[in-house]
Design brief:
The protein is mainly beta and about 475 residues long. Helix content is about 10%, strand content about 40%.
């Protein structure tokens, strides 16, 4: 085949012209290269125990320029940061830290380089705790070869001393128990600044010697718990590397408050759990102690099961109208003081005193105070009582212990409050006997004739 050389030459000329007309526009929408730290946040806090901080420097843009990035300590930058943020950092002395390099070279294609800042934690601890230190690094470029982003040209590196403490100084109050069961309590130890490189062991103990000082400082009247009342499950806990909390726990043996059924110590108790040491030097202890309070004012009230005295009520009065059927003896121990829950005695016939009621409270309890409520009518007619408790119930053969007796106070009120009725003997028991000794007013005439009366409820405080 014969090739037409003139045609080939013409085609080549057209191709050359076409190529000459094509421009490379790929960089038209790219900005010129700039250099900066990776993010705008100036502050970088890191645990002093981590021993290092990796600083990232970023080159953005077309990627057509090389440059030499320079790192320097800037007291001016730190002063400006302190003013803007209300801090008071001082420049960390040069003998306490070092940079892997203060000069970082970027070729035209490089986008990211790293500098490692390391420090000597022992040297930092030797400076004391009165001043907090930082390393203020400012980023520049040699010969102004590239623009430095002024929003990302300073990094304040703070090798933070870690501090630990109890999560709270005063724990939520607990109640002891009269039921022989062992109860548990717990709390958290909190590290403010995670240590990435190692576990932290925290030692602690119960220190009853702190109770008096706490009372003096807070104006309280807590008692130290008796030996064996509170014990810790362990004497140390570990905060794992990278974590910030660890739990501690303990057990309460409330039987240590009793000799048999007798409560030997009456009042609010305080169990101080104190941090004693840590496995790392330089840890600052903030809240050194968590105080665990135990109170004896738990609300003790029904509904309790009535065992004796069911006939001592208006509902069983032979002359009572039909609407009186709701005024039964169990209303005296149902835990309610609202309308419809009051107990009314016999009303139309002569009442015999003393009136006696026995209830099963469902579990062993100890009272530190009784609360007995009148109702809005017939107030003050029943004010003189005896109250007993027993560990076991055996009808007429029950061995009752007298825990409270006497006449309670009284003053008229349209909505009567529950009246305090102090305990004279603190004894645990499951069964309660409540005795009304007599009526207060004239039994022969008036609204209280025959010794009639009302009460809203019998309840109390304790545990």
């Amino acid at each position: 085949m014969k090739i037409n050389m003139w045609k080939l030459l013409l085609a080549g000329l057209f191709a050359s012209a076409a190529l000459a007309g094509c421009e490379d526009n790929r960089n038209n929408f790219m900005v010129d290269d700039t250099i900066s730290f990776v993010n705008e946040e100036q502050y970088a806090g890191v645990s002093v125990y981590n021993g290092k901080y990796e600083l990232a420097i970023l080159k953005n843009g077309k990627g057509q320029q090389s440059a030499k990035a320079l790192l320097s300590v800037s007291e001016t930058a730190l002063a400006e940061y302190n003013t803007a943020n209300g801090t008071n950092y001082a420049v960390l002395p040069a003998n306490c830290y070092k940079l892997s390099s203060s000069t970082v070279g970027f070729s035209d294609g490089d986008t990211r380089k790293f500098v490692e800042v390391t420090w000597d934690d022992a040297a930092i601890f030797a400076l004391g705790e009165d001043t907090e230190y930082a390393i203020p690094l400012e980023l520049t470029v040699a010969d102004d070869a590239l623009v430095v982003d002024e929003n990302r040209n300073v990094k304040i590196i703070n090798p933070k001393r870690a501090s630990i403490g109890m999560e709270k100084e005063l724990a939520t109050p607990f109640y002891p128990t009269a039921t022989h069961e062992v109860i548990t309590f717990d709390g958290n130890i909190v590290l403010d600044n995670a240590i990435a490189t190692m576990d932290l062991t925290v030692d602690y103990k119960i220190d009853n010697s702190l109770v008096d000082a706490y009372n003096q400082a807070k104006g309280t009247n807590y008692l130290a718990a008796p030996e064996g009342f509170a014990t810790l499950d362990a004497t140390s806990s570990q905060i794992a590397a990278g974590e910030t909390t660890a739990k501690f726990s303990g057990k309460i043996n409330s039987d240590k408050l009793f000799t048999g059924n007798n409560l030997d110590i009456v009042g609010d108790l305080l169990v101080p759990v104190r941090i004693t040491s840590t496995s790392l030097d330089g840890i600052t202890v903030t809240t050194e102690v968590m105080y665990v309070p135990f109170t004896m004012n738990k609300e003790l009230k029904g509904p309790w099961t009535l065992l004796e005295g069911e006939n001592n009520c208006y509902a069983r009065d032979p002359l009572a109208p039909g609407w009186a059927s709701g005024y039964t003896a169990d209303k005296l121990f149902d835990g309610e003081t609202t309308a419809g829950h009051e107990w009314i005695s016999y009303f139309a016939t002569q009442i015999e005193f003393p009136m006696t009621f026995v209830v099963d409270m469902g579990q062993r309890q100890v009272f530190t105070n009784f609360l007995i409520s009148d109702y809005t009518t017939h107030q003050g007619n029943y004010r003189e009582y005896e109250i007993y408790t027993a560990e076991e119930y055996d009808g007429a053969n029950t061995q009752w212990n007298l825990v409270a007796s006497g006449k309670r106070g009284y003053s008229w009120a349209a909505v009567p409050p529950p009246y305090d009725y102090p305990v004279q003997k603190y004894m645990a028991g499951r069964y309660l006997k409540f005795v009304i000794l007599k009526a207060e007013f004239n039994m022969a005439s008036g609204d209280f004739q025959f010794g009639r009366g009302k009460l809203a409820d019998v309840q109390g405080q304790g545990f």
